[in-house]
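Help! Submission page says 'invalid entity' but I think these are all valid:
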Amino acid sequence: MIATSMIPRVALRTALPLRRGFATSRVDLANTLVFLEHKKGNFAAATLSALTAAQKLGGDIDALVVGGDDASQVADKAAKLPGLKKVLFAKHADFANNLSEPLAPLIKKIVESNSYTHVCTGHTAVGRDIFPRAAALLDSSQVSDIIGLEGEDTFVRPIYAGNAIATLKSSDKVKVFTVRGTAFDAAALEGGSATTEEVKPDGVESLTDFVEEKVSESSRPDLATAPRVVSGGRALKSADNFVKYIEPLADSLNAAVGASRAAVDAGYADNALQVGQTGKIIAPELYVAVGISGAIQHLAGMKDSKTIVAINKDADAPIFQVADLGLVADLYEAVPEMLEKIK
Amino acid sequence: MRASLVNQLRVLVPVKRTIDYAVKIRVASDGKGVDQNVKFSMNPFDEIAVEEAVRLREKHKDAISKITVVSVGPPKTADVLRTALAMGADDAIHVEVPDKAVANPLEPLGVSKILNEIVKKAGEEEEVGLIIMGKQAIDDDASQTGQMLAGLLNWPQATYASKLEFSSKPEKGAEATVTREIDGGLGIVKTKLPFVMTTDLRLNEPRYASLPNIMKAKKKPFKKYTLADLGLEDQVKPRQEILKVAEPPKREGGAKVENVDELISKLKEAGRI
């Protein structure tokens, strides 16, 4: 890796304000690798947030794109992302499905041969699967799901389902971290002009075979990134009611559909819709919780929403403690009335 | 001690003692951690892991030689190991660290190094062929240890599993189909024993330990190691210094509206609809 003093200017050209003044940033410029997760050529939203986080570190930023036959096309697309110096791409049939066993050694090799000081990606199912394995190979203690950066070695992350916020300083030589998508703005898709470079993987070892993916098809906005979300809980009582009450309300607000764990476990809604500590963690402009009591684990997934609306029959439900607007009412009356009046 | 057959599978289940999931935690007055004078229990995802191991034996009779539970933690961690034994595990390994380690906890990397060593140690007696563990601990929410351990062992990993199936008897080299919870849906992978699997919520519904089983658990084999015994004292030192633990910003919630009209007009005022 050739590092010249001119390089940081590339990062300065980005539209996003760079935080300067990290104690060590002048002496020890960060040299960051961002793993760009993509599906069918579209970058995962949290990946673009990870790029924004990387920009806050200052220093050079390169990106890594992996895939099957599409890897070089996606790399060309990545080259337009703001603030990147170089996009490395690696092509192999086993990279197409983001399997951790071949990718973790690849990341280790690239990080070591280019002397990266930081490597990050989004805290998505893919990032959570691959990165700790890569961190162990690099002998680095990963920092998961960061929501803030206070220096090149100081990270902020939620613990205990978001009921406490820890600030920690890492002494690792290579800082490996994953970024919470909702905590950083997504980087723009245009504005940069990085070079691309192919990395030839050596000895790809596939220990796991990908069989298939069953992704819920939906014409609604994506839950993770939708500006509005309508969620249903146990009070819906059945999958039919979920379809009858929650979905039309979501559609009338052009919102994504979410659900509490209780609703998912009872089979009212699909697993992928679960909002909470162990499901999706989201922060939309508007979150409408319908028939959700508001357990700690659910709040962990949505309490950073800008405006929270709660509709619940029980005036003492914990959800009302976080709701900006609470309506104590039977959802079977309130939701149809809302539908009528929103039109 | 039951006779161990070469083609039988030994399952290792790492578990963690965490603050009970229902406790509303409080930030400690020194601002470096959270108040520890609360109820602790087994990390919920680890209960699911123990349950899955026990069910695997129930489903494939005589295929599993032994289910060994292991935990790294202060003396009280023995309680959660006893719970796991009462759920149906056969023996327990406790890697005991001093109480002060609670304030400066081991990181997933350190724990995965310890577990890596335990897999070797246990293997001297009988080889471990499958590791089932929780997808994350509800205290540090890191979601790293299983993946790190798989990386150190160079075993395949099947994370966030909601279904595990073996088409044949689960023995070394047998193929497993694992359904994983991924963003947007489910992903299905095939892998071969030995591997590391981490459990998602929907894998199963853990059983309660019955009183007779709790009594029986007290007599099951229970091994103890210290970090010095494993020669790992220096290798597992935390790499991260906790500078501060703070309360999250408080939401100003609580305002109630009278009816749907007021709700809609307030949302319109705020520009949300």
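Support: the input was valid. A stray whitespace character was the problem, and the output above is from the cleaned input. Chain A touches chain B through 90 residues (CB under 8 Å).
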